[in-house]
Amino acid sequence: MYLSMEHPKKNRLLKMSQANPIDVLVVTPQAILYRGQASSVTLPGEVGIFEVLSNHKPLLTLLISGHVMIDNKGIPIRRGIVKVVQNKVFAIVEESSN
């Protein structure tokens, strides 16, 4: 019997996210905080932290205080709103002073 420490579904999702990068735009009313591509985006949603990978289902939700993580680079936010559609993440946020 063959045992693997790696989860096959997670590996498949990781390969898919690397093949199709996500276009990411994070803005405030005053400035662009991030514009570029990423393999994953983690956001502090109203009902919990969630991760967006390639081919994520369409989503529109509020963001709460926390960090928007774009490929392990963090942007602290106070609150905001995010739209996810067709491998695009668009977030309008209020920057945190932390």
Q: What is the CATH homologous superfamily assignment?
A: F0F1 ATP synthase delta/epsilon subunit, N-terminal
Class in CATH?
Mainly Beta
> Rg from C-alpha positions?
15 Å
CATH fold title: ATP Synthase, domain 1
Q: How far is the first residue's CA from the last residue's CA?
A: 50 Å
Q: How much strand? A: over 45%
Oligomer: single chain
Low-pLDDT parts are: 1-5
Order of helices and strands: HEEEEEEEE
Helix proportion range: 10-25%
Number of domains: 1
The number of helical elements comes to 1
Dominant shape: globular
Description:
20% of the residues are buried. Strand 1 and strand 2 form a beta hairpin. Strands 1, 2, 3, 4, 5, 6, 7 and 8 form an 8-stranded mixed beta sheet that branches. With 98 residues, the chain is mainly beta. The N and C termini lie far apart (50 Å). It has one domain: Sandwich (ATP Synthase, domain 1), CATH 2.60.15. Helices cover 12% and strands 55% of the residues. The radius of gyration is 15 Å and the shape is globular.
